[in-house]
UniProtKB/TrEMBL annotation:
Domain Oxidoreductase molybdopterin-binding, residue spans: 238-386
SUPFAM superfamilies registered for this protein in UniProt: E set domains, Oxidoreductase molybdopterin-binding domain
Source organism of this protein record: Microbacterium horticulturae
Organismal lineage: Bacteria, Bacillati, Actinomycetota, Actinomycetes, Micrococcales
Protein name per its UniProtKB record: Molybdopterin-dependent oxidoreductase
Pfam family, one: Oxidored_molyb
Segments crossing the lipid bilayer: 67-87, 94-112, 118-139, 160-182
Length: 510
């Protein structure tokens, strides 16, 4: 019986590594589809292999050379895993450390690729950590004879061991299979998106006015780079949509049902507009807001084709993953730049921001207007249908509230005494900002310098020179909109229709 511990330890090692690789492959599908642990090692081996090696592989395996490589990596990895199980059973922690080291090899392979994603390191990190974490408990159940008696596998424990190791292996294999499947879809969609050239706008956005962007270090940029743009949605996996198979159906209380394909949409005269999106969940002073240049087609013109009936007052937009938003019909048919967007900041929409098509509506929070991966517009009535977040108790309509934020100095910062600057942004999309005021230590409100706004549909930057005297200070701000309303001091939480209150920061002046 005692000679069998090695077999059990080897199985423990294999179970732990398979579990880790499974977790890594699944993580890759979500976080970095081009950086799967096995795929990254395979890519690195292809790069490192000498020319004659590659040729030999091709002549030996033909077009199956890549499959052969992956099978080869799998076999070698299982061999190493078996060995690590035995090592861990004999020298606790040594196997775990080696698993972590394998993870580091995967990370190095993934991040050294020329087209590595920002999160390229994560799948292998997760794989290594998972294997390192699992191998100890599994291998301890199969400790060699003569080692600490208490750690030895007794018969009932052995049954447990088989159950644990078997389950870990099965979960690992299933996650790896699922991960690989999802990665394939994600990579196909990424390749399509990369090869895509959006048409030039028929109506380009007017240039950003000079003086719209203040030069204050630390101030939020006027246009948010797409990679820094906040992301909020209910999608665990980013939907992967091939534009060729995308279409939008407009139906419900309309005279004509309209179906629009991707090619038809791109053939329409598209327009560019800057619109600041904001999330209703953004707390006062929070970062769930961003400003981008969108390329799209006016939803108003599409609705006109469908001809909504007189009784309709809402459009329920639906995404491919079932999310819905209820947008007042009047907001989609007035003259604002509510668009069916295909482009963001000069490129196709990033997958996580709705590729291939999303809605962008100036003046409304995202949950009632900014449907990503949109495929369906149902013209209906507020008293007949309700949207995803409304069913969770949020307000059915969501006009954006008048708000402002202090970006400079950072709250909690220590600032040298003397001349410095207080700066931030203010917004109430589609209404516009006419004034921002600042109060230091509850002193008198002082008018800040307001930058030129791109339009009423975007946020606007502001700044105020400040002579900072040493000590602790509290700074507040409040905005006034174009209708003359002053931002309320009343503090309410985000639910059910958006937070209000004056933002404040505290700084220490040295
Ligand atoms: N399909 C889909 N679209 C969605 C959501 C979602 O969960 N699913 N969330 C909405 C919310 S609450 C916001 S604030 C915006 C955020 O858009 P962004 O992730 O591009 O910043 O998308 C909206 N569109
Ligand atoms: Mo949101």
């Amino acid at each position: 019986m005692d000679g069998r511990w090695r077999l059990r330890a080897a199985a423990a090692g294999i179970a732990a590594v398979v579990l880790g690789v499974g977790a890594g492959e699944l993580a890759a599908a979500v976080l970095a589809p081009a950086s799967s642990p096995i795929g990254a090692i395979g890519d690195a081996l292809i790069d490192l292999a000498p020319g004659w090696g590659k040729e030999a592989a091709i002549s030996l395996f033909g077009t199956s050379d890549k499959l052969a490589l992956i099978v080869g990596i799998g076999v070698v990895l299982i061999g190493i895993a078996a060995l690590l199980g035995v090592v861990e059973a004999r020298f606790p922690r040594a196997g775990a450390l080696s698993c972590a080291a394998l993870g580091v090899v995967g990370i190095a392979a993934a991040v050294s690729r020329a087209d590595a994603e920002g999160l390229a390191w994560t799948p292998s990190a997760i794989a290594g950590a998972m294997a390192a974490f699992a191998i100890g408990p599994l291998a301890r159940r199969s400790a060699p004879p003569g080692r600490v008696a208490a750690a030895r596998a007794t018969d009932p424990e052995r049954r447990w061991f088989l159950a644990w190791a078997g389950t870990a292996t099965l979960i690992g294999v299933a996650s790896a299979a699922g991960g690989v499947l999802l990665q394939t879809r994600a990579r196909a969609a990424t390749a399509t998106r990369r090869a895509l050239h959006l048409p030039a706008p028929a109506r380009a956005a007017p240039p950003v006015p000079s003086g719209a962007e203040l030069t204050v270090p630390g101030l939020t940029p006027l246009v948010t780079p797409s990679t820094d743009f906040y992301r909020i949605d209910t999608a665990l996996f980013v939907p992967q949509i091939d534009p060729a198979s995308w279409s939008l159906r407009i139906h419900g209380l309309v005279d004509h049902t309209v179906v629009l394909t991707w090619d038809e949409l791109l053939a329409l005269p598209l327009q560019e507009s800057y619109t600041t999106l904001a999330c209703v969940s953004n707390p006062v002073g929070g970062g769930l807001i961003g400003n981008a240049k969108w390329l799209g087609y006016p939803i108003r013109d599409l609705l006109a084709r469908a001809a909504p009936r007189a009784e309709a007052d809402m459009v329920l937009s639906r995404s491919t993953d079932g999310f819905t938003a209820s947008t007042p019909l009047e907001v989609l048919t007035d003259n604002r730049d509510a668009v069916l967007a295909v482009g963001m900041n000069g490129a196709p929409l990033p997958p996580e921001h709705g590729f291939p098509v999303r809605m962008v509506v100036p003046g409304l929070y995202g949950y009632v207007s900014a449907t990503k991966w949109v495929v369906d517009l149902e013209v209906t009535r507020f008293d007949r249908a309700s949207a995803y977040w409304t069913e969770q108790g949020w307000s059915p309509r969501g006009p954006i509230k008048l708000e402002s934020r202090i970006d400079v100095p950072r709250t909690g910062a220590t600032v040298p005494s003397g001349d410095t600057v207080i700066a931030g942004v203010a917004w109430q999309q589609h209404v516009g900002i006419s004034k921002v005021e600042v109060s230091v230590d509850d002193g008198a409100w002082q008018d800040a310098e307001l930058a030129t706004a791109i339009s009423a549909d975007t946020w606007v930057q502001w700044r105020l020179p400040w002579h900072a005297a040493s000590g602790a200070h509290t700074i507040r701000c409040r905005a006034t909109n174009h209708a003359g309303e002053v931002q309320t001091a009343r503090e309410v939480p985000p639910a059910p229709d958006g937070a209000t209150g004056w933002p404040h920061i505290t700084v220490q002046v040295a």
